[in-house]
Write a structure and sequence with these properties.
Layout (H helix, E strand, L loop, with lengths): L1 E6 L2 H10 L7 E6 L9 E2 L6 H10 L4 E4 L2 H6 L1 H7 L4 E2 L7 H4 L1 H11 L6 E4 L2 H11 L3 E5 L8 E4 L2 H13 L10 E5 L4 E10 L3 E3 L3 E3 L2 E3 L3 E4 L4 E4 L6 H21 L5 E11 L2 E8 L6 H8 L4 H9 L15 E7 L12 E2 L2 H6 L3 E4 L2 E3 L4 E3 L3 E8 L3 H12 L15 H7 L1
Parallel strand pairs: 1-2, 1-4, 2-3, 4-5
Antiparallel strand pairs: 6-9, 7-8, 7-9, 10-11, 10-16, 12-15, 13-14, 15-18, 16-17, 18-23, 19-22, 20-23, 21-22
Helix pairs in contact: 1-10, 2-4, 7-8
Length: 423
């Protein structure tokens, strides 16, 4: 089949890399793509709207389109494709509200009986400050709209919370996305990203992963789009997986359908494994980034066939095989990230890193004159597998050490929580 991928980041490079190895894929395209994606797919230009993406799919006669980022989904790309009779993986505009609006998402969880932390919606500073009295500190503040992974602030003191509220509501922090807020109970435990592929009725679970949101080691500093992730089957027991599917995933799929917005595509439940069981921190309506980079390294079957089955509305009998070895993705970020990233710095050592067996997924890169340059905040996702989590971590960081660009920074503790649990 011919497959088109929408997006140009690290997640989309990982999807393209995996699909390029699928026996059923005969041609692979991406829009807009990036220099890394261009190594395994043909990158084509398209207007950044549903009609433009549809014309791109028609121009290459794509049998299947896979949407990477959330923005096209919220904009209604799936609706446009389905109206034209083209196969696409993702939720409709209405279903994408699970990520597009944090307020809708939390209120949906209440209606569906999904376990989640207490919250208050706030549209004014006075309402948000009153909510602080209820929850105390630390407290979680979330912009209602899409904010590229930067719309969540964990405030440890009242002063930090008040400053964040003013910054979000004023637009200084994330623009219009912060015009409305969710003020939320701070939950303690260990985070897990649990993702399933849905056809609207059935789901196909993916392996569990863990993201690392804070910019610095030890989960310190401001939140980012994700500084690294690891995939290890030991993250959840069989009983925990069954509990998550029964109490979170199944009710989500059932209630979305009952409310007239059947959910298709990738449903991402960001969980906190608390003393009272798994609690949903947030939904995403697509594959995570950088979780996808780690996940694609562990897939050991024809990923395209599962995607096609979901797009055609029938996952019955579909399956994914997974390698036993864990994988680790280390994000290498540019100077200034996550505030104002510097761009245009030359990158060296990419081939040397991959010669060690790692895969370097491009995220914020562009082609310069005879060199690859930085073009965004999260630049690369250096990903490796290994015999055991310790081996995967060692392999990933050995490859990281081969790469250089001015001002680069990265966390040095990706996967270490797993090491403490299992050695």
């Amino acid at each position: 089949m011919k497959v088109l991928i929408l997006g140009g980041g690290g997640r989309e490079h990982a999807i393209a890399w995996r699909l390029a190895q699928s026996p059923s894929v005969t041609a692979l395209y991406a829009t807009p793509g990036n220099p890394g994606i261009a190594r395994v797919a043909r990158c084509i230009a398209a207007p950044g709207n549903p009609e433009g993406w549809l014309r791109a799919a028609e121009s290459v006669e794509a049998d299947l389109t896979v949407v990477g980022p959330e923005a096209p989904l919220v904009a209604g790309v799936v609706d446009a494709f389905r109206a034209a009779g083209r196969a696409i993986v993702g939720p409709t505009c209405q279903a994408a509200r699970l990520e597009g609006s944090k307020i809708f998402s939390k209120e949906f969880m209440v209606r569906a009986g999904i376990p989640t932390g207490g919250f208050v919606r706030a549209e004014t500073e006075a309402e948000a400050l009153k909510a602080l009295d209820r929850f105390g500190c630390p407290v979680v503040l979330k912009a209602d709209g899409l904010a590229a992974g930067k719309g969540v602030v964990i405030a440890n003191t009242r002063a930090e919370a008040e400053a964040a509220i003013r910054g979000l509501l004023s637009g200084d922090l994330v623009g219009k996305a912060g015009a409305r807020l969710v003020v939320e109970e701070f939950l303690t435990g260990e985070e897990v990203s649990f993702i399933v592929l849905s056809d609207g009725r059935h789901v196909l679970p993916l392996a569990p992963t863990q993201d690392h949101k804070a910019v610095h080691d030890g989960d310190t500093g401001p939140n980012t789009g994700g500084m690294g992730a690891y995939c290890d089957s030991r993250m959840l027991t069989a009983a925990e997986r069954a509990d998550i599917l029964d109490r979170i995933i199944a009710p989500t799929i059932e209630h979305m359908s009952a409310e007239g917005s059947a959910f298709t595509g990738f449903l991402y439940a960001g969980l906190m494994m608390t003393a009272r069981g798994p609690q949903v921190l947030e939904y995403n309506v697509r594959l995570g980034d950088p979780e996808t980079q780690a996940l694609m390294h562990c897939v050991d079957s024809d990923f395209a066939q599962a995607l096609l089955a979901a797009a055609h509305g029938d996952l019955t009998g579909a399956k994914l095989e997974w390698r036993a070895d864990p994988s680790v993705c280390v994000v290498m970020a540019s100077a200034g990230y996550p505030a104002t990233p510097r761009i245009g710095d030359a990158i060296s050592g990419l081939d040397e890193a991959e010669a060690l067996g790692a895969t370097v997924f491009h995220a914020g890169t562009r082609a310069g004159t005879n060199v690859i340059e930085t073009s965004g905040g999260r630049v690369l996702g250096v990903t490796a597998s290994g015999a055991g989590l310790a081996g995967a971590i060692e392999n990933a960081y050995r490859a990281v050490e081969k790469i250089h660009f001015d001002g680069m920074h990265y966390r040095r503790d990706i996967g270490h929580k797993g090491l403490k649990r299992w050695g």
